[in-house]
Design brief:
Length: 144
């Protein structure tokens, strides 16, 4: 009895960092699922400049270029993350970050596609990563 290979059919192949992506600013959403997703975050200056938490999402930031200062729970709890450093944040952890280096900050953020709602100053703010508002990397067509 033959079975269809569901994994190959659902696989997505895509480029997450090239010259065009490096040149841009803001968030670009990578193909993913409700359980695992990625976003390339690009900042000339600034970052996520208000203390906030994600109550339903663990996530990790991978610094691909530049330098970022992360603040955990309080502004004075600061850590500098440089190229190839990573920051893991369990759901509910308070943080904010800013670009603090000489060059553009490029971060790969891994988390979930639907869990990025956040709490800022006691208010739940729904994620703005939706198919209607997001900028998405398009996967390549597979030959099968």
């Amino acid at each position: 009895m033959a079975t269809e290979n569901k994994t190959a059919v659902a696989a997505k192949v895509f480029t997450f960092l090239d010259d065009e992506i490096r040149a841009g600013t803001g968030d670009i959403i990578l193909p993913g699922s409700e359980q695992l997703s990625g976003v390339v975050k690009r900042y000339e200056v600034g970052g996520e400049n208000r203390m906030h938490t994600h109550p339903a999402e663990d996530h990790t930031f991978y610094i691909l270029q530049g330098e970022s200062t992360f603040h955990f729970e309080k502004d004075e709890n600061a850590v500098v993350a440089k190229q190839y450093d990573a920051i893991f944040l369990p759901k509910g952890a308070g943080y904010w970050f800013e670009s603090s280096g000489e060059e553009k900050l490029i971060i790969l953020r891994a988390g979930t596609q639907t869990g990025s709602d956040r709490i800022i100053e006691g208010r739940l703010i729904p994620s703005n990563r939706t198919p209607e508002t997001g900028v998405y990397v398009q996967p390549r067509e597979l030959p099968f």
